[in-house]
Structures are given as C-alpha cells and as structure tokens.
C-alpha cells in the first residue's frame, strides 16, 4: 500500500489516537494556520510523544493531507440533494448557509480551506488538489440545487455562476466577521441567497 492509500485509510479507521491527532491538527490549523502547527504541540495536546504523531503521519504534509481528506469525506456525507422541487431546493440552500454559519462563523474562525488557501505556497500538490476537489464538490452541489429553483431549464454555465457567487459570499462574509467582530456582516452578505427562488 502506498503512502497516499495509507493516509486515506487512516482517515477512515476509527483508531482513537489517529482521530485525536486529526482533531488536534484541524483545531490547530483553524486557530493558527498550517505553518504554525507543530507535531510537538499536537503531541502535548493529545497526550502522546511527538514520535507517535510521526508514526501515524510521517510528515506535516501527510498530516495536512489526511485532515483535508477527512474534512472532505465528512462534508460529502452530509451534502445530500433535495427533491427536485423549487421550494425544497431553497430550503436546502438555506440549510447549507446555516450549516456554514454554525460550523464556521459562530465558532469565530474561517473555513479550513480558506486557512489553507492563504498558505497554498507551503502545501504539497496532493493537499492543494484536495482543496480544489472540495470546492468542486460544493460547487457541483450548489449548481444542481440552484438549477432546481428555475421554473424552466437553466444553462449549466448560469448555475455554476450562481454557485461561485454563493461560495464567494459565504467565505468573504466569514473573513469580514472575523476581521470586524460584527456578525451582522454574515447575514447582510448572504441575504440575497435566502430567497433566490423568488428571483429566478
């Protein structure tokens, strides 16, 4: 088994130590970024030796990739398409927005992908690709949901444009909230998407 396969397997096996390391690494990156994350600090938080972190994840690149993979897999499991009805689609979009607010904005941080994208020059190609794949996953879902809102056919280019605008609003709003401390910025930014079904 090659290293990539081992890491992908590591994100799926419920080994308590691996899970604890992944959780600690995720929290560390959300709080301080990729560069500041250290195996020594992670080991201290988990209550193991630094060598044990290296045993499960030989390098920092390996650990970051594993965190991103698990993050994507967990997200994909929750990302279900609604019924192909206009109001059901709007309800699904609003839930998507609410989930982002709960898991990102209300926690006082920006998303993992936003953090990592800011340090992309430090990441290996596998992690960079995992981030791109994650955004493709969300864009595809959003484009499909938005297309369900149109009374008649919607060109895929138009649906993808809406998806990009929605993602930009969410991530941009999270940065504004973190920068200003004003949580009202989030609802102001996403308000147009709350009733999109009435405008297309």
Automatic annotation (TrEMBL):
Transmembrane segments: none annotated. It comes from the Bacteria. Keywords: DNA-binding, Transcription, Transcription regulation. Residues 15-75 form the HTH tetR-type domain. It holds the Pfam family TetR_C_13_2. Signal peptide: none annotated. InterPro entries: Homeodomain-like_sf, HTH_TetR, Tet_transcr_reg_TetR-rel_C_sf, YxaF_TetR_C. One of its GO terms (molecular function) is DNA binding. Residues 38-57 bind DNA. The keyword Heme does not apply. PANTHER family: HTH-TYPE TRANSCRIPTIONAL REGULATOR YJDC, TRANSCRIPTIONAL REGULATORY PROTEIN. This is HTH-type transcriptional regulator BetI. It comes from Marinomonas aquimarina.
